[in-house]
Specification:
The protein has about 110 residues and is an all-alpha fold. The chain has five helices and no strands.
């Protein structure tokens, strides 16, 4: 009788986790952490690891081919003000904006 009670209780626990596991994990923020870990481990070449060329950098900052040092700095500041992670912006976009500025100011 004790063995059958344990079996029923175990099945109930497993069934409950299957049904309620995700919402409970979401409530504690663990679900997002698990999803991020799975996404980053599944990617073999993250976007930030790619090398940006000057044409891509100009597109990111929305500047012309002959843009001056001041134009590049101004475009960078304008875009970072809108996309900074501390103000709710994307970390990925901020890194792309910074990388674009670095590529264009390297020379």
């Amino acid at each position: 009788l004790v063995g059958s009670e344990m079996c029923i209780r175990d099945r109930s626990l497993i069934g409950g986790l299957a049904v309620y596991g995700r919402p409970v994990l979401q409530a504690f923020g663990l679900w997002q952490t698990i999803k991020r870990f799975n996404q980053t481990s599944a990617k073999s070449n993250p976007p930030s690891a790619t090398i940006m060329d000057k044409q891509q950098a100009r597109q990111v900052l929305d500047v012309e081919a002959g843009a001056s040092h001041e134009d590049i700095i101004s475009a960078h500041k304008r875009l970072m003000a809108k996309n900074h992670p501390d103000k709710g912006g994307s970390t990925y976009l901020a890194s792309q904006i910074n990388q674009a500025k670095d590529v264009l100011l390297k020379d």
